[in-house]
Amino acid sequence: MSESARKKTYVEDLSRDLYDIHNPFIYSYKTDKGLTPEIVQEISQTKKEPAWMTEFRLKSLDIYYQLDVPPWGPNIDELDIDNIVTYVKPPTDMRYSWDEVPEDIKETFVRLGIPQAEHASLAGVGAQYDSEVVYHNIKESMAQQGVVYLDMDTAVREYEDLVREYFMSLVPPHDHKFAALHGAVWSGGSFVYVPPGVHVEMPLQSYFRANAPGAGQFEHTLIIVDEGSYLHFIEGCSAPKYSVNNLHAGCVELFVKKGARLRYSTIENWSKNMFNLNTKRCLVDENGVIEWVSGSFGSKVSMLYPMSILRGEGAKAEFTGITFAASEQVLDTGAKVVHAAPNTTSTINSKSISKGGGTAVYRGVVKITERAKRSKSTVTCESLMLDNQSRSDTIPVIDIATDEVDIGHEAKIGRISDDAIFYLMSRGISEEEAKAMIVRGFVEPIAKELPLEYAVEMNNLINLELEGTIG
Protein backbone atom coordinates (compact mmCIF):
# COMPACT_ATOMS: atom_id res chain seq x y z
CA MET A 1 0.00 0.00 0.00
CA SER A 2 1.36 3.43 -0.92
CA GLU A 3 1.96 6.05 1.75
CA SER A 4 -0.85 8.21 0.37
CA ALA A 5 -3.26 5.27 0.40
CA ARG A 6 -2.16 4.34 3.91
CA LYS A 7 -2.95 7.85 5.15
CA LYS A 8 -6.27 7.73 3.39
CA THR A 9 -7.46 4.71 5.34
CA TYR A 10 -5.54 5.11 8.62
CA VAL A 11 -7.41 5.19 11.91
CA GLU A 12 -5.69 5.25 15.31
CA ASP A 13 -6.28 2.11 17.38
CA LEU A 14 -7.95 2.27 20.75
CA SER A 15 -5.62 3.32 23.54
CA ARG A 16 -5.30 0.56 26.12
CA ASP A 17 -2.59 2.22 28.24
CA LEU A 18 -4.76 2.19 31.35
CA TYR A 19 -5.80 -1.45 31.00
CA ASP A 20 -2.47 -2.93 29.86
CA ILE A 21 -0.63 -2.00 33.07
CA HIS A 22 -0.16 -5.30 34.86
CA ASN A 23 1.16 -6.23 38.28
CA PRO A 24 3.90 -8.84 38.84
CA PHE A 25 2.41 -12.34 38.73
CA ILE A 26 2.26 -13.03 42.47
CA TYR A 27 -0.16 -15.54 43.91
CA SER A 28 -0.75 -17.48 47.09
CA TYR A 29 -1.86 -20.62 45.28
CA LYS A 30 -2.56 -21.88 41.77
CA THR A 31 -3.38 -25.16 40.08
CA ASP A 32 -1.25 -26.80 37.41
CA LYS A 33 -1.99 -26.15 33.76
CA GLY A 34 -4.66 -28.22 32.09
CA LEU A 35 -7.93 -29.82 33.10
CA THR A 36 -8.19 -33.08 35.01
CA PRO A 37 -10.49 -34.56 37.69
CA GLU A 38 -7.68 -34.05 40.19
CA ILE A 39 -7.46 -30.32 39.39
CA VAL A 40 -11.26 -29.93 39.64
CA GLN A 41 -11.31 -31.68 43.02
CA GLU A 42 -8.37 -29.55 44.12
CA ILE A 43 -10.31 -26.34 43.36
CA SER A 44 -13.35 -27.56 45.26
CA GLN A 45 -11.33 -28.71 48.27
CA THR A 46 -9.44 -25.41 48.38
CA LYS A 47 -12.77 -23.62 48.62
CA LYS A 48 -14.13 -26.05 51.25
CA GLU A 49 -17.26 -26.60 49.17
CA PRO A 50 -20.14 -28.95 50.06
CA ALA A 51 -20.08 -32.41 48.51
CA TRP A 52 -22.86 -31.64 46.02
CA MET A 53 -20.79 -28.86 44.43
CA THR A 54 -17.75 -31.11 44.08
CA GLU A 55 -19.96 -33.71 42.43
CA PHE A 56 -21.46 -31.05 40.16
CA ARG A 57 -17.99 -29.96 39.06
CA LEU A 58 -16.89 -33.51 38.23
CA LYS A 59 -20.07 -34.23 36.25
CA SER A 60 -19.51 -30.98 34.32
CA LEU A 61 -15.98 -32.10 33.52
CA ASP A 62 -17.32 -35.38 32.10
CA ILE A 63 -19.76 -33.42 29.92
CA TYR A 64 -16.95 -31.09 28.77
CA TYR A 65 -15.02 -34.00 27.30
CA GLN A 66 -18.14 -35.37 25.58
CA LEU A 67 -18.96 -32.13 23.73
CA ASP A 68 -17.31 -30.61 20.67
CA VAL A 69 -16.50 -26.96 20.10
CA PRO A 70 -19.47 -25.30 18.32
CA PRO A 71 -18.74 -25.59 14.57
CA TRP A 72 -20.49 -22.37 13.53
CA GLY A 73 -18.47 -19.72 15.39
CA PRO A 74 -15.11 -18.04 14.85
CA ASN A 75 -11.94 -20.10 14.82
CA ILE A 76 -10.55 -20.77 18.31
CA ASP A 77 -7.96 -23.40 17.37
CA GLU A 78 -5.25 -21.36 19.10
CA LEU A 79 -6.95 -21.90 22.46
CA ASP A 80 -5.30 -24.86 24.18
CA ILE A 81 -6.89 -25.80 27.50
CA ASP A 82 -3.84 -27.91 28.34
CA ASN A 83 -1.86 -24.67 28.58
CA ILE A 84 -4.40 -22.74 30.65
CA VAL A 85 -4.20 -22.43 34.44
CA THR A 86 -7.81 -22.67 35.62
CA TYR A 87 -7.40 -21.35 39.18
CA VAL A 88 -5.15 -18.59 40.54
CA LYS A 89 -5.68 -17.35 44.09
CA PRO A 90 -4.31 -13.83 44.65
CA PRO A 91 -2.10 -13.19 47.69
CA THR A 92 -4.99 -12.02 49.89
CA ASP A 93 -8.23 -13.24 51.38
CA MET A 94 -11.51 -11.45 50.68
CA ARG A 95 -11.74 -8.08 52.43
CA TYR A 96 -14.74 -6.02 53.50
CA SER A 97 -12.68 -2.89 54.09
CA TRP A 98 -10.99 -1.18 51.15
CA ASP A 99 -8.07 -0.18 53.37
CA GLU A 100 -7.23 -3.84 53.98
CA VAL A 101 -6.81 -4.75 50.29
CA PRO A 102 -3.09 -5.18 49.40
CA GLU A 103 -1.60 -2.02 47.92
CA ASP A 104 -0.68 -3.39 44.47
CA ILE A 105 -4.13 -4.90 43.92
CA LYS A 106 -5.83 -1.84 45.34
CA GLU A 107 -3.85 0.42 43.03
CA THR A 108 -5.09 -1.56 40.02
CA PHE A 109 -8.70 -0.93 40.94
CA VAL A 110 -7.99 2.69 41.87
CA ARG A 111 -6.70 3.27 38.31
CA LEU A 112 -9.94 1.75 37.02
CA GLY A 113 -12.01 4.10 39.18
CA ILE A 114 -13.66 1.50 41.40
CA PRO A 115 -13.45 3.21 44.84
CA GLN A 116 -14.51 6.60 43.46
CA ALA A 117 -17.58 5.06 41.84
CA GLU A 118 -18.46 3.22 45.04
CA HIS A 119 -18.38 6.37 47.13
CA ALA A 120 -20.24 8.44 44.56
CA SER A 121 -23.05 6.39 43.12
CA LEU A 122 -23.14 2.70 44.03
CA ALA A 123 -25.09 0.71 46.61
CA GLY A 124 -22.47 -2.04 46.66
CA VAL A 125 -19.22 -3.13 45.02
CA GLY A 126 -17.42 -6.40 44.40
CA ALA A 127 -13.90 -6.60 42.97
CA GLN A 128 -12.48 -9.85 41.62
CA TYR A 129 -8.77 -10.30 40.91
CA ASP A 130 -7.95 -13.42 38.87
CA SER A 131 -9.93 -16.32 40.41
CA GLU A 132 -11.12 -14.80 43.68
CA VAL A 133 -13.14 -11.82 44.89
CA VAL A 134 -10.75 -9.64 46.93
CA TYR A 135 -13.19 -6.95 48.08
CA HIS A 136 -16.92 -6.87 48.71
CA ASN A 137 -19.18 -4.34 50.34
CA ILE A 138 -22.86 -3.31 50.41
CA LYS A 139 -24.38 -0.19 51.96
CA GLU A 140 -26.06 -0.84 55.28
CA SER A 141 -29.32 0.71 54.04
CA MET A 142 -29.53 -1.97 51.34
CA ALA A 143 -28.82 -4.80 53.76
CA GLN A 144 -31.55 -3.49 56.08
CA GLN A 145 -34.06 -3.89 53.23
CA GLY A 146 -33.10 -7.54 52.92
CA VAL A 147 -30.93 -7.16 49.80
CA VAL A 148 -28.29 -9.89 49.67
CA TYR A 149 -25.10 -9.10 47.75
CA LEU A 150 -22.25 -11.56 48.25
CA ASP A 151 -19.43 -13.17 46.38
CA MET A 152 -20.56 -16.56 44.99
CA ASP A 153 -18.21 -18.61 47.16
CA THR A 154 -19.68 -17.13 50.34
CA ALA A 155 -23.21 -17.56 48.96
CA VAL A 156 -22.61 -21.29 48.42
CA ARG A 157 -21.97 -21.59 52.16
CA GLU A 158 -24.43 -19.06 53.61
CA TYR A 159 -27.35 -19.50 51.15
CA GLU A 160 -26.67 -23.07 50.13
CA ASP A 161 -30.29 -24.14 49.51
CA LEU A 162 -31.07 -21.10 47.35
CA VAL A 163 -27.86 -21.40 45.36
CA ARG A 164 -28.35 -25.12 44.85
CA GLU A 165 -31.86 -24.50 43.49
CA TYR A 166 -30.76 -21.96 40.88
CA PHE A 167 -27.07 -22.60 40.14
CA MET A 168 -26.58 -23.52 36.45
CA SER A 169 -30.27 -24.37 36.10
CA LEU A 170 -30.64 -21.75 33.37
CA VAL A 171 -27.28 -22.49 31.72
CA PRO A 172 -26.84 -26.24 32.32
CA PRO A 173 -23.40 -27.78 31.67
CA HIS A 174 -24.66 -29.74 28.65
CA ASP A 175 -25.70 -26.46 26.95
CA HIS A 176 -22.34 -26.19 25.20
CA LYS A 177 -18.71 -27.16 25.74
CA PHE A 178 -17.68 -23.97 27.51
CA ALA A 179 -20.70 -24.01 29.81
CA ALA A 180 -19.48 -27.45 30.89
CA LEU A 181 -15.97 -26.07 31.37
CA HIS A 182 -17.41 -23.29 33.51
CA GLY A 183 -19.35 -25.79 35.62
CA ALA A 184 -16.14 -27.68 36.30
CA VAL A 185 -13.79 -24.84 37.24
CA TRP A 186 -15.95 -21.79 38.09
CA SER A 187 -14.59 -19.48 40.78
CA GLY A 188 -15.68 -16.13 42.21
CA GLY A 189 -18.46 -13.96 40.87
CA SER A 190 -21.51 -12.38 42.49
CA PHE A 191 -24.74 -13.49 44.13
CA VAL A 192 -27.64 -11.04 44.45
CA TYR A 193 -31.11 -11.52 45.89
CA VAL A 194 -33.58 -8.62 45.93
CA PRO A 195 -36.69 -9.30 48.09
CA PRO A 196 -40.24 -8.70 46.78
CA GLY A 197 -41.16 -5.05 46.30
CA VAL A 198 -37.68 -3.67 47.06
CA HIS A 199 -36.32 -1.05 44.67
CA VAL A 200 -32.53 -0.79 44.84
CA GLU A 201 -32.19 2.91 44.02
CA MET A 202 -28.41 2.87 43.42
CA PRO A 203 -26.67 0.29 41.20
CA LEU A 204 -24.62 -2.64 42.40
CA GLN A 205 -21.34 -3.21 40.57
CA SER A 206 -18.85 -6.05 40.17
CA TYR A 207 -15.53 -5.58 38.40
CA PHE A 208 -13.49 -8.52 37.13
CA ARG A 209 -9.77 -8.05 36.57
CA ALA A 210 -7.62 -10.82 35.08
CA ASN A 211 -3.91 -10.28 35.83
CA ALA A 212 -2.28 -13.72 35.56
CA PRO A 213 -0.71 -14.65 32.18
CA GLY A 214 -1.90 -17.88 30.57
CA ALA A 215 -4.81 -18.27 32.98
CA GLY A 216 -8.58 -18.54 32.81
CA GLN A 217 -11.22 -16.54 34.65
CA PHE A 218 -14.51 -18.31 35.29
CA GLU A 219 -16.65 -16.11 37.54
CA HIS A 220 -20.33 -16.98 38.09
CA THR A 221 -23.00 -14.32 38.52
CA LEU A 222 -26.40 -15.36 39.91
CA ILE A 223 -29.08 -12.68 40.39
CA ILE A 224 -32.65 -13.23 41.59
CA VAL A 225 -34.91 -10.17 41.42
CA ASP A 226 -38.09 -11.15 43.24
CA GLU A 227 -41.68 -10.03 42.51
CA GLY A 228 -42.19 -6.32 41.94
CA SER A 229 -38.58 -5.39 42.73
CA TYR A 230 -35.97 -3.42 40.77
CA LEU A 231 -32.19 -3.62 40.37
CA HIS A 232 -29.51 -2.12 38.16
CA PHE A 233 -26.40 -4.31 38.11
CA ILE A 234 -23.18 -3.12 36.47
CA GLU A 235 -20.40 -5.43 35.32
CA GLY A 236 -16.95 -4.34 34.21
CA CYS A 237 -14.15 -6.54 32.88
CA SER A 238 -10.56 -5.88 31.78
CA ALA A 239 -7.13 -7.49 31.51
CA PRO A 240 -3.58 -6.51 30.50
CA LYS A 241 -2.06 -7.89 27.31
CA TYR A 242 0.36 -10.81 27.41
CA SER A 243 2.15 -12.83 24.73
CA VAL A 244 0.27 -15.99 25.78
CA ASN A 245 -3.43 -16.74 25.39
CA ASN A 246 -5.86 -16.19 28.25
CA LEU A 247 -9.42 -17.48 28.56
CA HIS A 248 -12.58 -15.97 29.99
CA ALA A 249 -15.56 -18.34 30.27
CA GLY A 250 -17.83 -16.74 32.84
CA CYS A 251 -21.53 -17.41 33.27
CA VAL A 252 -24.39 -15.07 34.14
CA GLU A 253 -27.80 -16.39 35.25
CA LEU A 254 -30.57 -13.86 35.86
CA PHE A 255 -34.05 -14.56 37.22
CA VAL A 256 -36.65 -11.78 36.92
CA LYS A 257 -39.82 -12.64 38.78
CA LYS A 258 -43.39 -11.41 38.23
CA GLY A 259 -43.56 -7.65 37.73
CA ALA A 260 -39.85 -7.16 38.49
CA ARG A 261 -37.32 -5.20 36.46
CA LEU A 262 -33.58 -5.74 36.02
CA ARG A 263 -31.08 -3.67 34.07
CA TYR A 264 -27.76 -5.44 33.42
CA SER A 265 -25.00 -3.18 32.07
CA THR A 266 -21.64 -4.50 30.91
CA ILE A 267 -18.42 -3.07 29.50
CA GLU A 268 -15.97 -5.81 28.45
CA ASN A 269 -12.50 -4.52 27.60
CA TRP A 270 -10.34 -7.62 27.54
CA SER A 271 -6.85 -7.62 26.00
CA LYS A 272 -6.12 -8.97 22.53
CA ASN A 273 -4.74 -12.26 23.84
CA MET A 274 -8.06 -13.13 25.53
CA PHE A 275 -10.58 -15.66 24.25
CA ASN A 276 -13.88 -14.40 25.63
CA LEU A 277 -16.37 -17.29 25.59
CA ASN A 278 -18.99 -15.96 27.97
CA THR A 279 -22.59 -17.15 28.50
CA LYS A 280 -25.38 -14.88 29.77
CA ARG A 281 -29.04 -15.84 30.15
CA CYS A 282 -32.18 -14.43 31.77
CA LEU A 283 -35.56 -16.00 32.61
CA VAL A 284 -38.39 -13.45 32.77
CA ASP A 285 -41.75 -14.14 34.39
CA GLU A 286 -45.14 -12.44 33.92
CA ASN A 287 -44.84 -8.68 33.24
CA GLY A 288 -41.16 -8.75 34.16
CA VAL A 289 -38.55 -6.73 32.26
CA ILE A 290 -34.90 -7.42 31.46
CA GLU A 291 -32.76 -4.65 29.96
CA TRP A 292 -29.33 -5.60 28.62
CA VAL A 293 -26.81 -2.82 27.91
CA SER A 294 -23.58 -4.21 26.47
CA GLY A 295 -20.27 -2.84 25.23
CA SER A 296 -17.69 -5.26 23.77
CA PHE A 297 -14.31 -3.72 22.95
CA GLY A 298 -11.56 -6.16 23.83
CA SER A 299 -10.43 -9.77 23.31
CA LYS A 300 -8.83 -11.70 20.49
CA VAL A 301 -12.06 -13.62 19.90
CA SER A 302 -15.45 -13.07 21.54
CA MET A 303 -18.50 -15.29 21.39
CA LEU A 304 -21.22 -13.60 23.45
CA TYR A 305 -24.99 -13.70 22.89
CA PRO A 306 -27.05 -12.66 25.97
CA MET A 307 -30.29 -14.64 25.93
CA SER A 308 -33.72 -13.70 27.27
CA ILE A 309 -36.39 -16.33 27.83
CA LEU A 310 -39.78 -14.63 28.12
CA ARG A 311 -41.64 -17.27 30.10
CA GLY A 312 -44.49 -15.18 31.53
CA GLU A 313 -47.27 -13.34 29.72
CA GLY A 314 -46.44 -9.68 29.16
CA ALA A 315 -42.71 -10.19 29.75
CA LYS A 316 -40.30 -7.82 27.98
CA ALA A 317 -36.66 -7.90 26.88
CA GLU A 318 -34.55 -5.03 25.58
CA PHE A 319 -31.00 -5.43 24.29
CA THR A 320 -28.78 -2.47 23.44
CA GLY A 321 -25.22 -3.26 22.37
CA ILE A 322 -22.11 -1.78 20.78
CA THR A 323 -19.09 -3.72 19.50
CA PHE A 324 -15.75 -2.33 18.35
CA ALA A 325 -13.52 -4.77 16.44
CA ALA A 326 -10.01 -3.51 15.69
CA SER A 327 -6.94 -5.19 14.23
CA GLU A 328 -6.50 -8.87 15.19
CA GLN A 329 -10.00 -9.07 16.66
CA VAL A 330 -13.01 -11.22 15.76
CA LEU A 331 -15.97 -10.14 17.87
CA ASP A 332 -18.90 -12.47 17.24
CA THR A 333 -21.69 -11.06 19.38
CA GLY A 334 -25.42 -10.55 19.39
CA ALA A 335 -28.55 -11.44 21.33
CA LYS A 336 -31.11 -14.23 21.59
CA VAL A 337 -34.75 -14.04 22.64
CA VAL A 338 -37.27 -16.82 23.13
CA HIS A 339 -40.90 -15.69 23.23
CA ALA A 340 -42.55 -18.50 25.19
CA ALA A 341 -45.75 -16.74 26.35
CA PRO A 342 -48.48 -14.49 24.88
CA ASN A 343 -48.13 -10.71 24.61
CA THR A 344 -44.38 -10.70 25.08
CA THR A 345 -42.15 -7.99 23.60
CA SER A 346 -38.50 -7.82 22.60
CA THR A 347 -36.31 -5.10 21.13
CA ILE A 348 -32.75 -5.65 19.92
CA ASN A 349 -30.62 -2.66 18.90
CA SER A 350 -27.09 -3.64 17.93
CA LYS A 351 -24.32 -1.43 16.55
CA SER A 352 -20.79 -2.36 15.54
CA ILE A 353 -17.65 -0.59 14.36
CA SER A 354 -14.79 -2.40 12.63
CA LYS A 355 -11.36 -1.12 11.59
CA GLY A 356 -7.83 -2.23 10.85
CA GLY A 357 -8.92 -5.60 9.48
CA GLY A 358 -11.13 -6.36 12.48
CA THR A 359 -14.25 -8.48 12.07
CA ALA A 360 -17.54 -7.63 13.78
CA VAL A 361 -20.34 -10.17 13.51
CA TYR A 362 -23.92 -9.80 14.72
CA ARG A 363 -25.34 -13.27 15.35
CA GLY A 364 -28.84 -13.33 16.77
CA VAL A 365 -31.91 -15.48 17.26
CA VAL A 366 -35.55 -14.55 17.80
CA LYS A 367 -37.76 -17.56 18.43
CA ILE A 368 -41.54 -17.22 18.65
CA THR A 369 -43.20 -20.35 20.06
CA GLU A 370 -46.78 -21.45 19.37
CA ARG A 371 -47.86 -20.07 22.75
CA ALA A 372 -46.48 -16.59 22.08
CA LYS A 373 -49.52 -15.15 20.31
CA ARG A 374 -49.78 -11.37 19.95
CA SER A 375 -46.08 -10.96 20.64
CA LYS A 376 -43.85 -8.30 19.11
CA SER A 377 -40.15 -8.25 18.23
CA THR A 378 -37.97 -5.61 16.55
CA VAL A 379 -34.35 -6.19 15.55
CA THR A 380 -32.09 -3.39 14.28
CA CYS A 381 -28.44 -3.98 13.33
CA GLU A 382 -26.15 -1.19 12.13
CA SER A 383 -22.49 -1.62 11.20
CA LEU A 384 -19.91 1.04 10.43
CA MET A 385 -16.66 0.03 8.69
CA LEU A 386 -13.81 2.52 8.91
CA ASP A 387 -11.54 1.13 6.20
CA ASN A 388 -11.28 -1.29 3.29
CA GLN A 389 -9.68 -4.13 5.27
CA SER A 390 -12.38 -4.62 7.89
CA ARG A 391 -15.40 -6.88 7.81
CA SER A 392 -18.90 -6.82 9.20
CA ASP A 393 -21.51 -9.59 8.98
CA THR A 394 -25.11 -9.88 10.12
CA ILE A 395 -26.43 -13.39 10.75
CA PRO A 396 -29.99 -13.17 12.07
CA VAL A 397 -32.29 -16.14 12.65
CA ILE A 398 -36.01 -15.57 13.10
CA ASP A 399 -38.06 -18.69 13.92
CA ILE A 400 -41.83 -18.11 14.05
CA ALA A 401 -44.34 -20.80 15.04
CA THR A 402 -47.53 -18.71 15.09
CA ASP A 403 -49.14 -16.19 12.75
CA GLU A 404 -50.36 -13.78 15.41
CA VAL A 405 -47.11 -11.84 15.81
CA ASP A 406 -45.53 -8.53 14.76
CA ILE A 407 -41.90 -8.97 13.64
CA GLY A 408 -39.49 -6.42 12.21
CA HIS A 409 -35.84 -6.70 11.19
CA GLU A 410 -33.54 -4.07 9.72
CA ALA A 411 -29.82 -4.25 8.97
CA LYS A 412 -27.48 -1.55 7.66
CA ILE A 413 -23.79 -1.83 6.78
CA GLY A 414 -21.77 1.09 5.49
CA ARG A 415 -18.84 3.47 5.72
CA ILE A 416 -18.49 7.08 6.79
CA SER A 417 -20.12 9.10 4.03
CA ASP A 418 -17.89 11.42 2.03
CA ASP A 419 -20.97 13.63 1.51
CA ALA A 420 -21.51 13.94 5.25
CA ILE A 421 -17.83 14.84 5.76
CA PHE A 422 -18.02 17.43 2.97
CA TYR A 423 -21.19 18.96 4.43
CA LEU A 424 -19.70 19.34 7.91
CA MET A 425 -16.45 20.75 6.53
CA SER A 426 -18.47 23.30 4.54
CA ARG A 427 -19.78 24.53 7.90
CA GLY A 428 -16.25 25.23 9.14
CA ILE A 429 -15.59 21.93 10.93
CA SER A 430 -12.23 20.27 10.39
CA GLU A 431 -12.06 16.93 8.59
CA GLU A 432 -10.83 15.08 11.67
CA GLU A 433 -13.51 16.52 13.92
CA ALA A 434 -16.19 15.85 11.29
CA LYS A 435 -15.31 12.17 11.28
CA ALA A 436 -15.14 12.05 15.06
CA MET A 437 -18.59 13.68 15.24
CA ILE A 438 -20.05 11.03 12.95
CA VAL A 439 -18.56 8.18 14.98
CA ARG A 440 -19.74 9.71 18.26
CA GLY A 441 -23.20 10.19 16.79
CA PHE A 442 -23.24 6.56 15.68
CA VAL A 443 -22.58 5.26 19.20
CA GLU A 444 -24.55 7.94 21.09
CA PRO A 445 -27.76 5.89 21.43
CA ILE A 446 -25.71 3.23 23.22
CA ALA A 447 -23.62 5.62 25.32
CA LYS A 448 -26.67 7.35 26.77
CA GLU A 449 -27.92 4.00 28.12
CA LEU A 450 -24.73 3.33 30.07
CA PRO A 451 -24.02 4.49 33.63
CA LEU A 452 -22.09 7.76 33.55
CA GLU A 453 -18.64 6.40 34.42
CA TYR A 454 -19.01 3.62 31.84
CA ALA A 455 -20.23 6.04 29.18
CA VAL A 456 -17.07 8.07 29.79
CA GLU A 457 -14.98 4.89 29.55
CA MET A 458 -16.67 3.88 26.31
CA ASN A 459 -16.20 7.32 24.77
CA ASN A 460 -12.53 7.23 25.74
CA LEU A 461 -12.20 3.82 24.09
CA ILE A 462 -13.80 5.18 20.92
CA ASN A 463 -11.76 8.35 20.89
CA LEU A 464 -10.63 7.83 17.33
CA GLU A 465 -7.99 10.07 15.79
CA LEU A 466 -8.76 10.01 12.09
CA GLU A 467 -6.46 11.06 9.27
CA GLY A 468 -7.52 11.58 5.71
CA THR A 469 -10.64 10.26 4.09
CA ILE A 470 -12.08 6.87 4.96
CA GLY A 471 -12.70 4.48 2.10
The structural class is alpha/beta
Total E-strand runs: 26
Radius of gyration: 22 Å
How much beta, percentage-wise? 25-35%
Alpha-carbon distance between the two ends: 14 Å
Q: What is the helical fraction, as a range of percent? A: 10-25%
Total number of helices: 12
The averaged pLDDT comes out at: 84
Q: Number of domains in the coordinates?
A: 1
Runs in which pLDDT lies below 50 for 5 or more consecutive residues are 1-14, 464-471
Summarize the main sheet: 14 strands, mixed
Oligomer: single chain
Query: Shape, please?
Result: globular
Brief write-up:
The protein has 471 residues and is of the alpha/beta class. It has helices at 3-9, 37-46, 51-66, 103-111, 114-121, 140-144, 152-158, 160-166, 177-185, 418-426, 431-447, 452-461; strands at 29-30, 88-89, 124-129, 132-138, 148-151, 189-194, 204-209, 216-217, 220-225, 230-238, 246-248, 251-256, 261-269, 274-277, 279-284, 289-296, 301-304, 307-310, 316-325, 330-333, 336-339, 345-354, 359-368, 375-385, 391-400, 405-415.
What report would you give on this structure?
By secondary structure, this protein is α/β, with parallel strands linked by helices. It has one domain (25-417). It has twelve helices and 26 strands. Helix 2 (37-46) runs antiparallel to helix 3, helix 3 (51-66) runs antiparallel to helix 9 (177-185) and helix 7 crosses helix 8. The longest helix is centred in the last third of the chain and has 17 residues, at 431-447.
